[in-house]
Amino acid sequence: MVSKDSNSFSHNSDSSSIISIGFEGTAHTLGVGIVRDNEVLANVYDTYIPPEGGIHPRKASEHHGDVVREILDQALNNADIRIEDIDVISFSKGPGLGPCLRMVATAARSLSNYYEIPIIGVNHCLAHIEIGRLVTGLTDPVTTYVSGGNTQIIAYEGKKYRIFGETLDMGIGNAIDSLAREMGLPFPGGPKIEKLAESSNNYIKLPYSVKGMDLSFSGTMTKAINMLEDGSPKEDIAYSFQETIFSALTEVTERALSHTEKDEILLTGGVAANKRLRNMLEIMAEDQNADFKVPPSSLCIDNGAMIAHLGKIMYESGVRHDLMDTQVRQKYRTDEVDVIWRKD
Ligand code: AMP
Ligand code: MG
Fold it and tell me: pTM, whole model, 2 decimals?
């Protein structure tokens, strides 16, 4: 299903502004976004839903290849521009699943080559942060980035986005989706687990795994699955699982906030949709006198607009990539990128 973004605006006719297009394709979602200045002109995406089981990287990449043309056309149409109007093309260089990254990078390279438009490969996690800063107005937040494959607590220090804490095994969304699958609930499991959890307040103790500033979810997930097999009610398991893993995330976010002495928290990624998680972070933020904000959901999930926005600010700050430098990086780390576009 092709989804249209409700946050699109019609563009102005200022010819000096930069128009940037972004291709996202690190995992399930193929997205194309177009931005001009600080406006999202289009943000169209399509998510691969596996018929059963977890994500199969090659099948997801085939999906991306199948829909990319249609999504691109729709984005251009929504933004009311032609490819020739575009000043810079960006794509998600990583981190992510190899076949998906390669498929989307190939699409971006072909366009760049054919139309002779500069190309920039961007870090997916940084794109979440930068679009979040843009739309929430937070200037220097601690970012809690929670998605299917990624879970990181990130803050800016000394020209880099540093990882203050992260998962040591699986992404928090994958842990939730795996538990949901065991309950017979199809992808995406997050909203279904959230709904189940709302009808329980019976906490059953689960392993709570904070190791230093890092997190781990697989032990908690395995125990929850064992409880399911032993016949505990699904609602109680869903509730206890959310309480446990979201408390751990809130604890690490609070410590990162206090360590960095920042006073803003940005929550983003697909799991940011969860009301209980928002609620826990909000209570903590209030205690700490910090501002807490979450971007609109179309800009929290994996999307092309965030890639376009980061590509645009990198391009404006002078970054240029040769076509030869556009290899994808499955394990592209958040703290590898020199953040030359921030002046603080
Ligand atoms: P992303 O990887 O950022 O595209 O986000 C997808 C992940 O977000 C999947 O693991 C979903 O299950 C998860 N997700 C979506 N909505 C919710 C929700 N309401 N609660 C928890 N997880 C969610
Ligand atoms: Mg993401």
Answer: 0.95
